[in-house]
Design goal:
Elements (H helix, E strand, L loop, with lengths): L3 E6 L2 E5 L5 E5 L7 E6 L13 E5 L7 E5 L3 E5 L6 E12 L5 E3 L2 H6 L5 E3 L5 E2 L6 E7 L2 E6 L9 E3 L1 E6 L5 E9 L11 E4 L3 E5 L6 E7 L4 E7 L3 E5 L5 E9 L4 E8 L1
Parallel strand pairs: 8-16
Antiparallel strand pairs: 1-2, 2-3, 3-4, 5-6, 6-7, 8-9, 8-12, 10-11, 10-13, 13-15, 14-16, 17-18, 18-21, 19-20, 19-22, 22-23
Length: 262
């Protein structure tokens, strides 16, 4: 498509677009323009090329738009602009509630079953980008509740749902949290934990025969092993989030403690 002779008329950018006809963007918030209206004055032409609308004039007192078309002549359009809904909703996975580490990546979202949101009444599913941001830019008003479900069964993830009223005159920016809480009771901590770029560095009080298992929050075993040394370097799993380290010794004593991969 080839734009030609764009004109700003209030909250609208009116452009003659050759084979695409007359094209009107709602630019009330210019950082997020939305196609509000268009009219194809030469439907027999498509693609690139210098056919169709090559001039549009939106400044008549009546509000009508004059469009000159190379093939079909002069058009007088009487536009009716719709309301436009805009929002940017940031999704964050937060560990341990308010004040805890908050982040989002697609692997972690899949792990905790919080990959998408949906409109309660409309039923439309919205998928965030890789950073967790959902961008809404469409014609028509929206009055609905945005639901963020969790598809995993243990009740340790608490997601937010929120009602929104979207339309012209507003650009909503908001943040929703999925709070992840530890669901396995912690026994007395065995390991002193420090962290490096590659994993956790663990230190026990003394050498002993121990079995260990690293679990995901869904109870799935990530890795396991046996050691006698009091020191252990445990590599990070691929996904950020909370994990459970279970340790048992030869006397049957058992320890569980949380480990966070940032």
């Amino acid at each position: 498509m080839i734009p030609h002779n764009a004109h700003v008329d209030g909250d609208h950018l009116v452009t003659s677009y050759y084979t695409f006809g007359c094209h009107v963007l709602d630019v009330e918030f210019p950082e997020l323009p939305v196609l509000a209206a268009y009219y194809d004055t030469s439907p027999q032409y498509s693609g690139t090329g210098y056919n169709g609308a090559w001039g549009a004039y939106p400044y008549l007192p009546s509000g009508r738009i004059l469009v000159s078309d190379i093939e079909t002549g002069l058009w007088v359009l009487d536009p009716e602009y719709p309301s436009v809904s805009r929002a940017e909703i940031q999704l964050l996975i937060r560990f341990g509630g308010v004040g805890g580490t908050a982040m989002f990546d697609t692997t972690t979202a899949m792990m905790y079953g919080v990959e998408y949101v949906y409109w309660h009444n409309q039923g439309d599913t919205l998928w965030p980008d890789a950073t967790g941001k959902i961008t809404i830019a469409q014609t028509g008003s929206i009055q609905d509740s945005l639901v963020w479900p969790s598809t995993v069964s243990p009740p340790y993830i608490y997601t937010e749902s929120r009602s929104y009223s979207l339309g012209s005159g507003s650009f909503v920016r908001d943040t929703l949290y999925a709070d992840v809480y530890f669901s396995v009771p912690e026994a007395e901590a065995l390991w002193t934990v420090s962290q490096s770029d590659r994993g956790w560095m663990l230190t026990a009080p003394a050498d002993a025969d121990r079995n260990w298992t690293l679990l995901g929050m869904d109870g799935r075993s990530i890795s396991s092993g046996t050691l006698r040394d009091r020191y252990m370097d445990l590599p990070y799993p691929s996904a950020s989030g909370l994990y459970v380290l279970e340790t048992t010794d030869a006397q049957g004593r058992r320890w569980t403690q949380k480990l966070l991969k940032p």
